[in-house]
Amino acid sequence: MTGDPDEMTEPVDRQLPNFFLVGAPKCGTTSLASWLNEHSAVFMCKPKEPFFFSRDIQSPRAAESWSDYRRLFKGAQPGHLAIGEASTTYLRSQVAVPAILERVPSARFVVCVRNPVEMVSSVHGQLIRSGREDVYDLRKAWNLQGARRAGQALPPLTTEVGDLLYGEVCALGTQLKRLLKYVDRAQVLVLFLDDLRQKPDRVWSTLTSFLGIPHDGRQTFSKKNERRIPRSMRLTRFVALAHRTKNWLMPRRTLGIGPWLREALVRAPSESEFCIPDDLRRELRLFFEPEITMLEDLTDKNLSSWRRNDK
Fold it and tell me: What positions does the domain Sulfotransferase occupy (predicted)?
């Protein structure tokens, strides 16, 4: 409970979310949320990630109170059969799923997963891009986890140390197992990024069926939030700091150049920049072997391809 005075008297209405795309980050959630947002029977709240229920993870929440959170969905109409949000911190959070079920016991959960070895590299790249990671070398960043857990060697713009603990962020087996402790398996759909890339039409059919919405005949599946790296770390940190302080330094209504500027500061990585060195790949694969085995057991899917050292 949040302690709102209207908490016990405010009636439950149909405009509460009935599904949650809970993560994991860098596993295709942005693409899925974008496709869902274009479906006439789906209402996705804005912002896509309100982070309301993951109170144990420091994030820029779009709503602090339950009544404010409800207002994010006030635009839902009778024709919207699926009403949702896509906060990717919820899968990793220790408290989000129980808190969701307290409010919406029949909620459905969509979980996206991928090879954790590749996920480490992708998450690291995203943190670099956003200015929350200042160690460009993946091996060095991986080896700094112990120090950072102890509060050392933290980037100036980091507000959540847990974001830099790559082994925990990418522990997808552990996270899915925890979710299934609270949620009936029939209320959970697990999707794999490999399938999203190779068979998006099948994934879309599975997802629409799970959410109880009609298939819209979609044939085009654009990719969102593809990997980018900064052209300049100094400029990236400056823009990230400006974005964080915009409520104090900038008027609420701007010219809308922020997204354009952030995109102009990044570029697609070269093959060598994207590649994980073989020895580090082996180290990561051994580290995540228990997580991969757990995912196989939980999803009944053969993930032997993830155990190869090549990409």
Answer: 17-225
- pLDDT tens for residues 197-233? 999 999 999 999 999 999 999 999 988 655 555 555 5
pLDDT digits (tens, 9 = 90+) for 100-157: 999 999 999 999 999 999 999 999 999 999 999 999 999 999 999 999 999 999 999 9
10 Å CB burial of residue 299 (0-12, 13-18, 19+) is middle
- Within 170-277, residue ranges assigned H as helices are 172-182, 193-198, 200-211, 233-244, 246-249, 258-264, 271-274
Overall residue count recorded for the chain in this entry: 311
- β-pair type (229-230, 266-267): antiparallel
Tell me the C-alpha to C-alpha distance, in Å, between residue 11 and each of 3, 70, 271: 16, 11, 54
User: Residue 26 and residue 29: Cα distance in Å, rounded?
Assistant: 7
Under 8 Å between Cβ of 306 and 291: no
The domains found in the chain, sorted by start residue, are 19-117+169-225+288-307 (3.40.50.300)
List Cα–Cα distances, 68 to 4, 71, 96, 222, in angstroms: 10, 5, 17, 32
Check whether 299 has a pLDDT greater than 80.
yes
Closest CA relative to residue 240, chosen from 162, 161, 156: 156
- In this prediction, residue 222 carries a pLDDT of 87
DSSP-derived 3-state class of residue 258: helix
Rg of the chain in Å (alpha carbons): 20
pTM strictly above 0.90: no
The continuous run of DSSP H or E covering 112 comes out as strand 108-113
Q: How far, in Å, are 89, 133, 162, 309 from residue 52 at the CA level?
A: 10, 24, 17, 38
Q: Of 193-202, 204-213, 274-283, 296-305, where does mean pLDDT reach its minimum?
A: 274-283
